[in-house]
Design a protein that fits this description.
- By secondary structure, this protein is of the alpha/beta class.
- It has 19 helices and 11 strands.
- The strands form 2 sheets. The chain has a 9-stranded mixed sheet with strand order 3-2-1-4-8-6-9-7-11, with helices on both faces. The chain has a two-stranded antiparallel sheet with strand order 5-10.
- It starts with a helix and ends in a 15-residue tail after the last helix.
């Protein structure tokens, strides 16, 4: 009996010891997550709770990852500054700078920036010309990915001849500080003014009286919720955080082509990227080759494309190959390029875009493409060896539990390092493809999420905002 009693005591002590170790690990992990990468996660949680716009937990975890030594080893030392997270010191100014702002402050800051239309580094790299390549980058909150996109842009040849326009739907001082630290080309920031962040309790955010997503029509009518009569084609009611992506893309394109003073006479190419993309060092070189090839062999090609979603890459055989094919949203939406002429054609059919019951901007554009009166679908000329890559394994549509951005980034870095001798081809060879069944499949119906008449009206009204005079605002 004494021996059994002694064994029982040992077991209890062992269990208590393991429990204490587990608690210590959890506390350390929590503290580490708060102290690591650029986004102040605690501040984000406070802000999202205030705005009823919770970011996916995977997104918060991804933003807390440190950049691995393997990734840093392939980044030139002079560019480490874009990957370095500066610890927030205890001074009053630093604390105030990174603390959550109230919505009124954010709205005023957004209006000041949008009115000012400031172009940073214009004094160094010269004014925007009519043929300057504009790179429009849609930014949400994934700071880690944005850091690496900026590093990849910094290494691109002729990047100093471009204008980077960062379009934000979330106001964050640390993201702003990173963007404004760019010193290798001209930079502008624009802010989507109808965001979920700035409209937490009213449309375009989630009004408290909006119908629950999964409410049945009969239930919604009894509730007398705002949009009871307008579920989407699948019987669901709108979700603001998903509707916002299409709104933001449409607003950004309208803003760049129709509202900024620096683009009033712009006739050059506009390249559309997102915060979780990564570019090859010769992407501008290839873009110019695509444009010249299209001019000679495919004048009807309205869209150029620098990215594909291939699983494997054979640069020794594809680096100088391009393909002409019908444009399809899910295949040719990454690194997409077009000019004002194409935008004008899109704008003529804005109703096709804004009324289509799909919360995805790219599928809405595909619907527009397939329903152009008297015209063929968009054609695209794309590089078969991609120069734009998707590195976003976690975030908006991706819910992986392991959200270490460094894993995918290091793979892309290594891929481009191995392909270095095949970059910058002097010319490209084009082939014409009719496209597969997926390319040519007629869209029967959209993915939903866009049945609310308020979304359709807001989308249409974005095209009615006139070009704003540039205001010079000096910050102290």
């Amino acid at each position: 009996m004494p021996r059994l009693k002694y064994a029982s005591i040992l077991r209890v002590l062992l269990i208590l010891g393991l429990f204490c170790v587990w608690v210590q690990i959890m506390l350390s992990a929590t503290n580490g997550a708060l102290d690591k990468d650029g986004d102040n996660i605690l501040a984000d949680i406070i802000q999202t709770n205030l705005t009823n716009n919770e970011q996916p937990l995977t997104e918060e975890l991804m933003n807390s990852n440190e950049t691995s030594e393997q990734v840093l080893a392939l980044v030139p030392p002079e560019l480490h500054k874009y990957l370095t997270v500066h610890p927030k010191n205890s001074s009053a100014n630093a604390t105030e700078r990174y603390s959550p702002k109230n919505i009124s402050d954010i709205l005023r800051a957004i209006q000041r920036v949008n009115d000012a239309q400031t172009i940073y580094n214009e004094d160094i790299f010269g004014p925007v010309q009519n043929d300057t390549i504009i790179i429009a980058i849609q930014v949400h909150t994934r700071l880690t990915y944005l850091r690496h996109l900026i590093v990849s842009l910094a290494q691109a040849k002729d990047i100093d001849r471009t204008l980077l326009i960062f379009s934000h739907d979330y106001y964050d001082e640390e993201i702003n500080s990173l963007v404004r630290s760019i010193d290798f080309t001209k930079v502008m920031q624009i802010f989507y003014p109808y965001s979920v962040q700035t409209h937490p309790l009213e449309f375009p955010g989630m009004d408290p009286n909006d119908c629950p997503r999964d409410a049945k029509l009969e239930q919604a009518l009894k509730l007398k919720c705002n949009n009871a009569l307008h579920p989407d084609l699948h019987g669901h009611y709108r979700e603001a955080k998903y509707a916002q992506t299409k709104h933001h893309w449409w607003w950004k394109a309208n803003r760049i082509f129709n509202q900024l003073q620096c683009t009033a006479s712009h006739t050059g190419m506009v390249l559309f990227l997102e915060e979780d993309h990564y570019v090859a060092e010769d992407f501008i070189h290839i873009l110019n080759l695509l444009r010249s090839t299209a001019d000679k062999t495919c004048p009807q090609c309205e869209i150029l494309c620098l990215g594909t979603y291939l699983k494997t890459y054979q640069y020794h055989s594809t680096s100088d190959k391009v393909e002409i094919t019908p444009w399809h949203s899910s295949m040719h939406n990454m690194g997409m390029v077009f000019n004002r002429t194409v935008w004008t054609n899109i704008l003529e059919l804005q109703e096709q875009f804004c009324a289509y019951d799909d919360y995805n901007w790219d599928y809405s554009l595909l619907h527009l493409s397939q329903n152009r009166p008297g015209r063929e679908k968009f054609k695209v000329i794309l590089c078969k060896g991609p120069r734009v890559f998707h590195i976003g394994e976690c975030g908006f549509h991706h819910k992986k539990s392991n959200c270490n951005a460094s894993t995918v980034i290091s793979k892309v870095q290594k891929l481009l390092q191995d392909a270095k001798s095949y970059l910058f081809p002097p010319r490209v060879t084009a082939t014409i493809s009719a496209g597969g069944a997926k390319h040519n499949k007629k869209l029967i119906k959209g993915n939903g999420g866009w049945g609310d008449l308020r979304d359709q009206e807001l989308c249409t009204n974005m095209t009615k905002v006139e070009r704003q005079m540039r205001k010079y605002i000096y910050y102290t």
